[in-house]
Write a structure and sequence with these properties.
Helices cover about 30% and strands about 25% of the residues. Strands 8-7-9-14-15 form a five-stranded antiparallel beta sheet. Strands 1, 2, 4 and 5 form a four-stranded antiparallel beta sheet that branches. A three-stranded antiparallel beta sheet has the order 3-12-11, with no helix packed on it. The structure holds 2-amino-4-trifluoromethylsulfanyl-butyric acid and cobalt (II) ion.
């Protein structure tokens, strides 16, 4: 296995996939109100993806049963939408993947439902700041480890933990490609970044220890200590002149 460099045509398809991902996330952010079920958000996501001519990337991937992932509070990622009703104060992670003409894009956001705790809001701010620190490192001449080191530095400085058991990933011709993009790394280590690479950079952090468990549904990843978790992700193209977000409108 090796890292696939994408052609300009492939990048354009990923941009189309990414535009649909961004559209879905924007709609779901607004729809995620107290009293709404996570299944409703899933249905809405599928409607938008279908209307825009894309295909959901998660459904059927390793038999995952839904269009999106909805993870609440101590759930970190891969939460399966269902009858759960959102409540004011919930820290919700929305994760969406779309395929367009065979090319994939993947992104996630954390949102606080209604008025949440100060801790929930701080986690959301810090996970986004950590993402942008990693993003800045995604340029030719830098090393893969520079991304994780930059992310980790922000998370640590704010007194939170990086969830080390999960990582970002290459993305493009498949939802998950090489390389793995850890959020815990040493600067200057790992592969040399090159233009044409496309990475899903996705810090996952918690207010507690950072260790996780998988629930009995076989998917939902929760923090071991029950602490709140946040997640933020974009598909990033390493262009000759630096990083470009593909999951945007
Ligand atoms: N964005 C998540 C990831 O990259 C989505 C996975 S859900 C799955 O791991 F069903 F597709 F696995
Ligand atoms: Co991902």
């Amino acid at each position: 296995m090796s890292i696939v460099l994408k052609s300009p045509r492939e990048i354009e398809c990923m941009r189309q996939a990414g535009r649909i991902v961004a559209l879905v996330l924007a709609e779901l952010r607004t729809a995620a109100q107290a009293g709404v079920t996570t299944a409703t958000l899933d249905r809405l996501a599928l409607e938008i993806i279908a209307r825009e001519g894309g295909e959901p990337a998660f459904r059927g991937y390793r038999e995952y049963p839904a269009t999106i992932c909805t993870s609440v509070n101590d759930e970190v990622l891969h939460g399966i939408p269902g009858r759960r009703v959102l409540r004011a104060g919930d820290l919700l992670k929305l994760d969406v993947g779309v395929c367009w003409q065979g090319m994939y894009a993947d992104a996630a956001v954390s949102v606080v439902v209604g008025r949440g705790s100060q801790l929930a809001h701080r986690l959301v701010e810090v996970v986004e700041e950590a993402f942008w620190a990693g993003y800045t490192m995604a340029r030719p001449g830098r090393y893969l480890g520079d991304i994780g080191a930059a992310i980790e530095e922000i998370v640590r400085r704010n007194g939170f933990s990086v969830i080390e058991e999960y990582a970002g990933h290459g993305v493009g011709r498949a939802l998950h490609e090489e390389p793995s993009v850890p959020n815990h790394a040493e600067a200057g280590r790992g592969i040399l970044l090159r233009s044409g690479m496309t990475l899903a950079i996705e810090p996952m952090i918690s207010a507690g220890s950072g260790q996780t468990l998988v629930k009995r549904d076989g998917w939902t990843v929760v923090t071991r200590d029950g602490s709140l978790a946040a997640h933020y992700e974009h598909t990033v193209w390493i262009s000759e002149s630096g990083p470009v977000i593909l999951t945007q409108l």
